Amino acid sequence: MSSVALIVRDLGSQKARSLSLLMDAFELSMAAVKNAVASNSPVVTKKLFDRKDPQFPSRLANLLDELSAINCEWTAVELVNGQSYEPSGKFYEITAERLRKMVAAREESIAQQRHLGEMEAGEE
């Protein structure tokens, strides 16, 4: 299962707003966010699609839009097969739009699987 790492490179001109958005979205302390930004480390690394938090990808897409709107510089990358984020590594970058497309594709896949399951159950 893939994960996403959110790296914030610059909090932008509205630092307090950027901090607030990140702290609220991930339940982090101000110090944790500031340390991650200063060290070029992920503010958060989390499973992208998790049954325990099925709304996470949609919330993340909205957060990315909000951060962009206030000129906060961020990069979100997909980590697969247990990868860890390395600043010099090559990763698939995730934009808010790509994330929304991933959510839509996943929802469509789940709907198709349900439909096939219902069809198979009806054949028995």
Describe this structure in words.
The chain has 124 residues and is α+β, with helices and mostly antiparallel strands. The protein has one domain. It contains 4 helices and 4 strands, in the order E-H-H-E-H-E-E-H. It has helices at 15-26, 30-38, 56-69, 96-123; strands spanning 3-10, 42-47, 73-79, 92-93. Strands 2-1-3-4 form a 4-stranded antiparallel β-sheet. Helix 1 runs antiparallel to helix 3 and helix 3 runs antiparallel to helix 4. The relative contact order is 0.18. The mean pLDDT is 91.
Count up the domains: 1
- Say how many strands there are: 4
What's the helical proportion of residues? 40-55%
Class from helix and strand fractions: alpha+beta
Mean pLDDT: 91
Note the total helix count: 4
Radius of gyration: 17 Å
Strand order of the largest sheet: 2-1-3-4
Biggest sheet features: 4 strands, antiparallel
- Fraction of residues in β-strands: 15-25%
**First-last Cα distance:** 32 Å
Shape: elongated
* N-to-C order of helices and strands: EHHEHEEH
Report low-confidence residues grouped into runs of 5 or more.
none
Give a quick precis of the structure.
The chain is of the alpha+beta class and 124 residues long. The chain is 51% helix and 19% strand. The chain is built from four helices and four strands; from the N terminus they run E-H-H-E-H-E-E-H.
